[in-house]
Amino acid sequence: MVAERGRRNGAQAAHKRGRGVTRDAPDADNAPTAEMPAVDAGNGAAGEGDAVRAKAIPEAAVARLAVYLRVLSGMADQGATTVSSEELSAVAGVNSAKLRKDLSYLGSYGTRGVGYEVTVLVGQIERTLGLTRKHKVAVVGIGNLGHALANYGGFPGRGFPVEALFDVDPDLVGVPVGGLPVSHLDDIPAVCTERQISIGVIATPPTAAQSVCDRLVAGGVQCILNFAPVVLQVPEHVEVRKVDLAVELQILSFHVARRADIAEAAASAQAAANGSSSDSRVPMTKLGLGNGLVERS
Ligand SMILES: NC(=O)c1ccc[n+]([C@@H]2O[C@H](COP(=O)([O-])OP(=O)(O)OC[C@H]3O[C@@H](n4cnc5c(N)ncnc54)[C@H](O)[C@@H]3O)[C@@H](O)[C@H]2O)c1
């Protein structure tokens, strides 16, 4: 099948370029994104068809830009007109050097003694993240997760209106969820094309995810947010983001365990310095159990 071949070839090409077909670990500071449209440092109005391209922005910086945007929007709502890098970095939970580096990708360097103009910075980040236009979203798989996503009111206000819902369950098809009737799986290509859906969210069981993904791609969807624990094959022009809360929890577990190891090692060192032999505990790191995911006796 031509479509099948195209999909596999695209995946292989992406793999050869080192991009991978899905992006499971977007937080590598060195992982570049595709080139982003340039925005200028003044009013930020990048002309249509602007031939100038900004340098690639690392995935992790893109994620942080979204955080800065949320923080800055809150500040703007409260009437703030300028913000210093220290202020913004403190609220965003990022060190200020990293923040300044991130904002430099936008061509935004702030003014010494004044900082950044909030509305200008909001505009620059929105343009860079492609948020100056709406991205219509379809959710496929209206079970526990799909219901929550369809009912969540926070997406439309941030430029992501949910405009289509799909499921295979005949009991769900035609039933409104979050005010939108659920359509049948088979209608994905036609409905997505007609409603110009640009983002497809997959919340089906893993066994169904690839065929759902293929239907979304056939409907012209160019971005997939995949909650199913499976790696998807997509053509080169389609972006996939995989969400896995278990991975996030494991990362948190790692950090908690690391802090415990450090505290334990410090306590042992202190005990040794005091010449105390009462603490016979051995730091886990010394036992080669640095990930801390081991029951302590
Ligand atoms: N990434 C995460 O952190 C995370 C968290 C929770 C769930 N999940 C995953 O999200 C998915 C959904 O979880 P859930 O708890 O909502 O499951 P669920 O069983 O409640 O819902 C799945 C829905 O998908 C529908 N479905 C099944 N096959 C389909 C198909 N071919 N086309 C369209 N719809 C189809 C079912 O009818 C059902 O309504 C699962 O893959 C789960 O592993 C991921």
Automatic annotation (TrEMBL):
Gene3D superfamilies hit by this protein: NAD(P)-binding Rossmann-like Domain (3.40.50.720), Winged helix-like DNA-binding domain superfamily/Winged helix DNA-binding domain (1.10.10.10)
InterPro entries named in the record: CoA-bd (IPR003781), NAD(P)-bd_dom_sf (IPR036291), Rex_actinobacterial-type (IPR058236), Rex_DNA-bd_C_dom (IPR009718), Tscrpt_rep_Rex (IPR022876), WH-like_DNA-bd_sf (IPR036388), WH_DNA-bd_sf (IPR036390)
The keyword Cytoplasm appears for this protein: yes
Keyword annotations of the record: Cytoplasm, DNA-binding, NAD, Repressor, Transcription, Transcription regulation
Superkingdom, natural source: Bacteria
Chain residues that bind NAD(+): 141-146
Pfam families associated with the record: CoA_binding, Put_DNA-bind_N
Gene Ontology molecular function, alphabetical: DNA binding; DNA-binding transcription factor activity
HAMAP family in the cross-refs: Rex
Entry-linked PANTHER family: REDOX-SENSING TRANSCRIPTIONAL REPRESSOR REX, REDOX-SENSING TRANSCRIPTIONAL REPRESSOR REX 1
Function noted in UniProt: Modulates transcription in response to changes in cellular NADH/NAD(+) redox state.
Family, per entry: Belongs to the transcriptional regulatory Rex family.
Protein name (record): Redox-sensing transcriptional repressor Rex
Organism lineage: Bacteria, Bacillati, Actinomycetota, Actinomycetes, Pseudonocardiales
Gene: rex
